[in-house]
Amino acid sequence: MSSVLVLGAAGRTGRLVVTHAVALGHEATAGVRTPEGFDPAGVDPGIGRITVARVDVRDPASVRAAAAGHDAVVCAVGPPGRRAEGLYSATANAVVAARAARVVVMSSAGVRHDDPGFALWYRVAARTLLRELYDDMRRMEETLAAAGLDWTAVRPSRIHDGERPAAVRVEDGVVPAGGSRVHREDLAEFIARQVDDRRWSGAAPTLAE
What we know:
The protein is α/β, with parallel strands linked by helices. It has a single domain (about 5-209), classed as Rossmann fold, CATH 3.40.50.720. Helices cover about 35% and strands about 20% of the residues. The strands form 2 sheets. An 8-stranded mixed beta sheet has the order 3-2-1-4-5-6-10-8, with helices on both faces. The protein has a two-stranded parallel sheet with strand order 7-9. α2 links the parallel β2 (about 25-30) and β3. α3 (about 60-65) crosses α4 and α4 (about 85-100) runs parallel beside α6.
């Protein structure tokens, strides 16, 4: 069992990461900007292994304080729109400053915008409309790699909330052949498992159905 700080725990994926982390037996701290609006019982009813901490990922001091005493930090942050405005790179810088022993971040398959598994229209969008977003995710990954931390950057393909498939496929740095999307529940569970699983340490596992 590990103790894990989940940044971005108030988001749709972050909340599920907290749920799966607890189900795996971890002690979880939900790092959120407004603890008053986060109800642990809504994420983990009846189990009681969640604490809540006020954390602003753009404030390295708050990340460092929240990460103290934890075995791992999971970053499931995301902007509300299509522009990152430095959110991912700021998060990486804060986590590096906190010197977390284990770091798992949610990135995106779009970071590799030349992935042959993408449709042509998406490769064009990744280089134009979504370029700022994916460039910032790429900086996040590069920052973690350069810091010498034990890190994993989980890259989902398009996230959906529809019917959950029987299985999810994973490849290193490339979308699995024929895949284009991944269920949010599968993504969150995979991220939570990386807290203790070192199989993808220093790599970018890319998920698709």
